[in-house]
Design a protein that fits this description.
7 strands
């Protein structure tokens, strides 16, 4: 588990500057951003894959992913944090969130944004209630169990978080009375998580030093890829570059040797802070930017 605010010494020890969590390490390959992490797990464990198999459903997944992240659903949900929360009186927490979001996270700033945030969240609830869930289906794609369209793309986690955050949503505007299908969807997901946890093997817990040692002594999970010579950014393999997210956490950039570049992923090689072992840091291309060190942004 990582602390809610920086510094996160375990991640620093690996030489990773990316500040958002979670991250995934498979050997000395470190994957950043939940969207990339889920895709890697889908590819690595196809027998347990949760993603759609049909092209039309894959397209729905991608559109929903864009709606939640790039369309601002998550950002609007964050603006509904009740100003009464003790964390909003903690200068360390406030400074951390201002660094993360790139703007003021004071109680007055949150209060000012709250009305518009509620309008956007109500619209999101209506989109699900009177759209995908209107016909009484249990899950977004009409599946028998939750799929990636529920977990990541329609982001039940965002709706569940904001519903369970006391004081975030005024019952007169957003509640189970106005949106019974969305609230039932959230409840089904919570029960599915509880069921999955009960039947899953108990995970092994490692202390920080053990986890870092285990990672640094491991091999790479993936062989070095290639750099697409036709990519518009015009970068070359082994060139020194830096990559970072452009939506949140933009002050924290990973820098290293360009190992691979595809239409969906960038891979940098960088030394760990502890031990100086080479780590491969994977970023998605979506909502990230990459540039040559000392060069113009691409």
């Amino acid at each position: 588990m990582q602390p809610p605010t920086l510094p996160r010494e375990d991640i620093n020890a690996l030489g990773v500057k990316y500040r958002r969590i979670p991250i995934l390490s498979i050997g000395r390959d470190v994957y950043c951003d939940s969207r990339l992490i889920l895709q890697k797990l889908e590819d690595r464990f196809p027998s347990g894959a949760l993603g759609a198999s049909q092209p039309d459903q894959k397209a729905v997944e991608k559109l929903l992913e864009k709606w939640v992240i790039d369309g601002g659903i998550f950002a609007r949900a964050a603006q509904l944090i009740p100003t009464s929360l003790p964390a909003l009186r903690d200068p360390v927490f406030l400074a951390d969130r201002e660094d993360y979001f790139g703007n003021s996270f004071s109680r007055s700033a949150i209060s000012k944004k709250r009305p518009e945030a509620l309008v956007h969240m109500r619209d999101a609830f209506e989109f699900l209630e009177f759209g995908f869930l209107a016909d009484g289906r249990q899950w977004i794609l009409g599946t028998e169990t939750p799929s990636l369209a529920d977990i990541e793309d329609a982001a039940v986690w965002v709706f569940r978080w904001v519903v369970e955050l006391k004081g975030a949503l005024p019952p007169s505007l957003i509640s189970g009375e106005q949106f019974p299908k969305v609230y039932s969807w959230i409840d089904r997901f919570s029960k599915a998580i509880s069921s999955a946890k009960a039947s899953a093997p108990k995970p092994t817990t490692l202390r920080s030093a053990e986890a870092i040692k285990h990672i640094l002594q491991a091999d790479f999970a993936e062989s070095e890829g290639q750099v697409d010579e036709n990519d518009p950014v015009g970068l070359k393999k082994d060139q020194d570059v830096e990559s970072w997210p452009i939506d949140t956490g933009s002050n924290h950039r990973d820098r290293g040797r360009l190992v691979a570049l595809t239409s969906t992923e960038v891979v940098l090689a960088s030394p760990s802070k502890v031990g100086g072992k080479e780590i491969h840091i994977h970023h998605p291309r979506t909502s990230f930017t990459i540039q040559a060190v000392g060069g113009a942004k691409l």
